[in-house]
Amino acid sequence: MRLLIVDDNVFLTERLETHLEDRFTIDTAYTGVEGEELAKTRPYDVVILDLGLPDISGEEVCAHLRQAGMMMPILILTAESDTDTKVRLFESGADDYLTKPFEFAELDARIYALLRRRQADSPLSLLEVGDLIINPSRRTVTRGGVPIHLRRKEYEILEYLVRNLGKPVSPDMILRDVWDRSDTDERKPTVRVHIKYLRDKVDRPFTKPLIKTAHGVGYTIEDHDMVL
C-alpha cells in the first residue's frame, strides 16, 4: 500500500516515515503544491496532510483534490482543536483529523480505520476497463472473471496506466511515478521488460488487447469499446 505524507516539519515527517515504512510505500512532500501534484498523479491508499503548510493550507489542498475527483482517504494533522476548524476540514473533504501532538498508536488506528472504510466501499472504487477489473484496496486484478497474478511493479504499472485511461504514458513518467527514479535513460529497458510481462499476463490470454503502444510516446491502455 502507498501512503503520501504532506508536512513541512522535516523532523516529524522523518519520524512518520521511519514508523510507517515497514508497512507502506511512503512518498513525502513539504509544500501543499507539491503534495497536491503528487496526489493527482500517483495512486495513494491514504494521504496524511498537515493543515499548516507554508504555501497553501492543507484545507485548500484537500478541497482541490476533491474538486479534481480524487477520492483517496485524507487524514489531516492539525494543532487546532476548535469546532469551527473541524467543521471546515470535513466540509473541505477530509475523512478524519488528528490533533497534534499525537501518539503513533492513535495515528495507526486512524489510518487502518480509513483503510477498512475504503475496503468496505471498494465496489464504488473499482477500476474497470472493459472486462479488466482492478481492486486497489486489495491490489487484485481479474479479466473476464479470471484472476491475474502480478508482481508488485507489474501491478503498480497496470494501475498507473488504468488511472491514466486513454492518455499516452511515457517511460519517463512510469519511472518517475512508479519507481520514483530520475535516472530515466538507463532504466527505460526495465519499463519495456515489465510492459512485456504485463502484456503476457493481461492481454495475450484474451481476445482483445488493452495495452497499446503510443508510437513516439510510450504506452496507453484503452477500453476496446470506448469511443474516442
What does it look like?
With about 230 residues, this protein is an alpha/beta fold. It folds into two domains: about 1-120, Response regulator (Rossmann fold, 3-Layer(aba) Sandwich), CATH 3.40.50; about 125-220, Winged helix-like DNA-binding domain superfamily/Winged helix DNA-binding domain (Arc Repressor Mutant, subunit A, Orthogonal Bundle). The protein is about 45% helix and about 20% strand. The protein contains nine helices and eleven strands. It has helices at about 10-20, 30-40, 60-65, 85-90, 105-120, 120-125, 150-165, 170-180, 185-205, and strands at about 1-5, 25-30, 45-50, 75-80, 95-100, 125-130, 130-135, 140-145, 145-150, 210-215, 220. A five-stranded parallel β-sheet has the order 2-1-3-4-5, with helices on both faces. Helix 4 (about 85-90) links the parallel strand 4 (about 75-80) and strand 5 (about 95-100). Helix 2 (about 30-40) packs parallel to helix 3 (about 60-65). The chain is elongated. The two termini are about 35 Å apart.
Summarize the SSE layout with pairings.
Elements: E1 2-6, H1 10-20, E2 25-29, H2 32-41, E3 46-50, H3 58-67, E4 74-78, H4 83-92, E5 96-99, H5 104-120, H6 122-125, E6 127-129, E7 132-135, E8 140-143, E9 146-148, H7 152-163, H8 171-179, H9 184-203, E10 211-214, E11 218-221
Parallel strand pairs: 1-2, 1-3, 3-4, 4-5
Antiparallel strand pairs: 6-7, 7-8, 8-9, 10-11
Helix pairs in contact: 2-3, 3-4, 7-8, 7-9, 8-9
